Amino acid sequence: MYWILVLTLAFDLAAVKSEPNLEKRSELALDQANLALNAARDDYNAGNVDKTQSELEEVVDSVDVAYQALTDTGKDPHKDSKFFKRAELRINELLRRLESLAPGMTGVDRGTLDNVRARISAVHDKLLTGIMTRTKKK
User: Fold this and answer.
1) Residue-wise pLDDT tens digits, 100-110
2) Contact call for residues 19 and 28 (beta carbons, < 8 A)
3) CA angle at residue 42 from 38 to 45, to 5 degrees?
4) Would you kindly state where each structural domain of the chain is located, as residue ranges?
5) 3-class DSSP assignment, residue 106
């Protein structure tokens, strides 16, 4: 059963990208990021570092898809913040979960995790900036 989940991770992200509703695409991509993080944790605990790294990349790719979907809506995150705030909260939770993965990792593996956290944190910061910043009317 676990292998089915691993095999469907890449397929699912492709399916997420085909979702026409951009807000729903963002939500689905963040669901996918959580699934990939679960798989990464399980694989790391099982000693499969290579799979862990590819699943962590899947987490980053999913977060990027979620953010891109929200920016593609063309909505102002400050004025219409519902989905932007949801994404910000969920990405913040992902960052906390990534943080909890670090203590059990070796120094080399922790470097990879730090890179993943930095990339996801950058997206989180963009979301927060958009939500908190007013845009001037022209």
Assistant:
1) 988 888 877 88
2) yes
3) 140
4) 2-132
5) coil
